[in-house]
Each structure stands twice: as structure tokens, then as C-alpha cells.
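@channel sequence for tomorrow's demo:
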Amino acid sequence: MSESWTHAYTSTNGIKLHYVTQGEGPLMLMLHGFPEFWYSWRKQIPEFAKDYKVVALDLRGYNDSDKPSEQSAYVMAEFIKDIKGVIQGLGYDKCVLVGHDWGGAIAWNFAYAHPEMLDRLIILNLPHPAKFAEGLRTPQQLLRSSYIFFFQLPWLPEWLIQAGDYQPLEAAFKGMAVHKDAFTAADIQTYKQAVAKPGALTAMLNYYRNAFQQGLFKPDWGVLEVPTLMIWGEEDTALGKELTYGTEQYVRDFQIKYIPDCSHWVQQERPQLVNQYMREFLAKK
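C-alpha cells (generated this afternoon):
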């Protein structure tokens, strides 16, 4: 599978970003979440490379992308500039944008900032920001999101995540997964190696350390005109299914596909179904 994809870099917004690409045609740009990197799309890249130029990005701070040392470098305004620069740097003026978890948060925000640059938007297990803000006013979602508040602390989260050869990383993937066999020992080791790269772990946590002061939860979300598909693993222990209810009031052309018996790691646990739902959505004119 990996023999036919290519590793490459693009420079944008003052930094160098690494990505994996396969295929030719219209651009499909994939944005991963925490604590992942481009590898979380390994089961989608070859499938969609049949019809698209698929680009699975390492977000700034992750894996082989640059890792600015300043905490202030990890704010939504910079993420949006990164994505715009990647699309244009690849020679495109628009794309199909696919995002999971933090990549989904960036994708939502990019869609509002630059709707003219998107053909379609596909979001996996990350609620619309307005719905997430609502959720954080409820005790059940505050409890599910308690790790976000822990990540605000200096150095202690890094120390704990590194403990026992990054054992908490394995617990995050296999502990949350419904289908544990979706993550092989080799997969877990690949994720550990990416997080262990110098500067990566603090950079990854800095996304959370800036989350509350960067307008992520602004009050004035309008109605998005970009056709949008949301795919949701129903057994997500970090983000409750109720956060998806009412999303259609923020998106003019909205579809949602729930996947039962599946966790937050939806595209890795149920790749065939995720790929099928994406294909059906992209086929509709």
C-alpha cells in the first residue's frame, strides 16, 4: 500500500510542512487529529487516490512538519493560513477538505474563513464549534473534556505522556477503541515514534493550551454554504453524540452518518464504511 504514495514538503506561512500524497486529479486534503499525524489516513489515501490527488498533511508541530517553539504559534489564525498556503502551494484554488478531531476543528474554521476554496467539507468526530461550546456548558461534556483542562498545565502532561515508553498513547488508542484490532503493535509504535520527535509533544499540547483564547468558541457562527458531511463513531468517549444534534442549523447542505459500535478513531476502526459514506457524498452533485 505505502509503495505507491510519496512523501514531500511544502513551505507556507513561514514554516515547512510534511505530507504524504498519492493520485492525480482534484485535490483532497486530509487533516489529522491529536495525538496522530498523516498516518491516521492510511486506510483512506489509496482508496481516494483513484480519483483525487490525495494529500494527508502533518499539521504544524506534528511528526515531520516544523515545530515552532513559541506557544503563540499554535492558534487557529495560523492553522488557517497554513491550510490556505498548502492548497495554493500545491497549485490548486480549491479542494475537498477532510478533517478528524483537531483537523476537524481546523476544517470547520477554514470553511468559514475561505468557503470559496472548498468544494466539499467532510468532518469526522468533531462537532461544529458552536455545538461544542454548547456542550462544554453541560456537566457530562465537561467531564469528557476534562483532559483539555489537564493539558493546560505546564510540563506535567508531557511527563505523564512520556511515562513507560509513551504507554498513555497506547491507552488512548486501544483503550478508547471498540475494535482493538484496528491498531496493531506496529501502528502503535509508529504513533509513538512520531510523538517522540524533538519538540513534537509540547507542540501538540500547545493546540490545547491556546484553545480557549483563540476564538475557537466565538459566539457568532453563521450558516455555512459549503456542502458538508459529518461521520460520527457513536461510542466516542471524548465527544458525546448529542454534540451533533442541531448541526443543520449551521450548515445549509448537511448530511450526517452515524457509525454504531465505533469509537472516536472512526476512520481507522471502520475504514470501509467511512470510505463508502465519503464516496456516496462525493458522488452527489
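heads up for whoever presents: The longest helix spans residues 156-176.
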